[in-house]
Amino acid sequence: MATSGSTALESYGSGQPQPPLRVLVVDDSKAQRRILSMSLSRWGYRVTEAASGEEALLICATDSFDIILSDWMMDGISGLEFCAAFRGLASDTYAYFILLTSKSETAEIAHGLEAGADDFLTKPVSADELRARLRAGERIVGMQQELVQKNRLLRSAFTELQRAQDLIDRDLIEARKLQQTLLRDRARDWGRGAARLFLRPSGHVGGDLAGFFDIDANRVALYSVDVSGHGVASAMMTARLAGYLSGAAPDQNLALCRHPDGRIDSFPPETVAARFNHAMLEDLRVDQYFTMVFVEINLSTGQLSLVQAGHPYPVILRRDGRIDRLGAGGLPIGLVPDAAHDRVTGQLYAGDRLFLLSDGVTECPSPTGDPLGEDGLEAILYRNRRLDSPALLDALIWDLSHFMGSEDFPDDVSGLLFDYRGGES
Length: 425
Prior knowledge:
CATH architecture of the largest domain: 4-Layer Sandwich
Order of helices and strands: HEHEHEHEHEHEEEEHEEHEEEEEEHHHE
Number of domains: 2
Oligomer: single chain
Number of helices: 11
Strand content: 15-25%
Largest sheet: 6 strands, antiparallel
CATH topology of the largest domain: Phosphatase 2c, domain 1
Helix content: 25-40%
Strand order of the largest sheet: 6-7-18-17-14-15
Radius of gyration: 39 Å
């Protein structure tokens, strides 16, 4: 082991030579101070002297030291009192404190340790023992300096991470605003029917989507989609699917086809599911899937046909309060090649309301972890059946919050409500 402070610290830092360690010698005996100072200087330390505990405290208030050698018994404040006062000073570094004493009683030593001393030397001081204790102090100081440096690096890294997180949060907030534009048209009234959408992401951005578009003057399409997972990847897939279900771009809409005469028509619902399944597995080739309900409604007759692909069952709240559940289950989109989905038909009458809701509703947990379920959803709808549609949607969200005991839903909550007013006579 090296004998100087500068060499001993090389193993605790970057490997570069360190400046000499600073040692403060405190003793009210000038002769004792000089003896210690000469030995320390000869060994490579940078030495400062103080003739009393009071002077030492004044020096320590403006300067820092790596090691302090202090006599225990001094006029004025004792070395023990100086040690306790020194430990009370605010400092970013640690100084190894050695008390010089003739005391050897266990109680006195314990008292010194409680005051903040690290080590003791019995007077008269042996040069070999002093050097051994100094080397021990060097190791402690070196490790402390290494920890300080690592903490400084950690704080710097944390600051950078926090800055990056702030940038991500700002980007996610903007992404959420952009995602909300996917539901820019949140309500549509066709005269014989009207649709309303709602979306409550569980985070900044989510993977739920609901919407509608015109097929022709007499038919409309409604859909509810839930992409697997959460976060940016799900939101990006949702944006992609919104383009595939856009009424503004019928040639890109996977549910629509154009006849040779230019007339727009729709594929049957089961074909729509097959086209999306093919697009996910063959065209997009992503490790994601989504559930969906796609519904086509004839506004004149109230007849509907739909396909259910792993999504919660569509529900009809009849005008008289009865509740009908539609659907045939089915596999999610994007899991199995050539998955078959069955078409389901139904009939709406004047005053009926059709609900397409994501599993964030039916799987909303109670405080004990029990999901709301299909039966719980139907109970909420029946309890609020006399409310008009906007108030009913508000009541649905409120009842979900009450059921869970919180307004912070663990999953995206979204859906669509379609009011059927009746067709032509």
